[in-house]
Amino acid sequence: MSETSITSRDNPIFKRLKKLAESARARREAQMTLLDGEHVLAAYLDAGGQPHTLVRAASFDAGQFEQWTARCPGVRAIALPDALFDELTPVSSPTGLLGEAAWLFPASPKNTPLVLVLEDIQDPGNLGSMLRTGAAAGATLAVLSKGCHDPWSPKALRGGQGAQFVLPIARDVDVVEWCARFEGQSLALALAEDRSVFSSDLTGPLAFIVGNEGAGLSAGARAAATSTVQIPMPGKMESLNASAALAIALFEAVRQRLA
Asked: What is the model's pTM?
């Protein structure tokens, strides 16, 4: 496959890629994103996606790049000097491979609902990790409030490691309204509650609600939940990372459902 070499920041293709790297609005309008690294690209292909463009840094092995382009019929192949490539990647040590790709919209499975409801999660790594945990637990849906970080940003995609390609996501949702419509049990994860998540019945239709990393859940979200539950912490720490708390709760639900 022929490869196009781009050496100028004024090139329209480079400008388009840079917008996707930096702008949530550009990603939303185009419903496109950048896949950073071989693992994320492989997960996208495994999920049935086909990238529009593959980009390599000049230092990335050309023969290895040809193996990737061979898996992507009709893809446009681009080579960039390392300095230009580095402007498109969110990490300090780039892998040297990027894909420009359309968002995927996986269908909701028909399992008993297991939903993660995320309110104002603003750290992209945390958000990606939560989506990854949800996908691993067999969640049927991720509900993201308007204040959440863009799940299709390159950093969130790296954190998700392919979760966005297999887990249905509802964005810009009013959490209070969503909880009012949900036909199941909605449990807000919070501190200083008497009821433990481990003593709760998690086998039916279920949604776990997790709040912002610093502020926690809003009063409205807590009030909208069926009830609030805690994760017992006998140690001398005030709280858990929001991503860790969600992982514990989700896999307690998995344990109960498998049992």
From this structure: 0.92
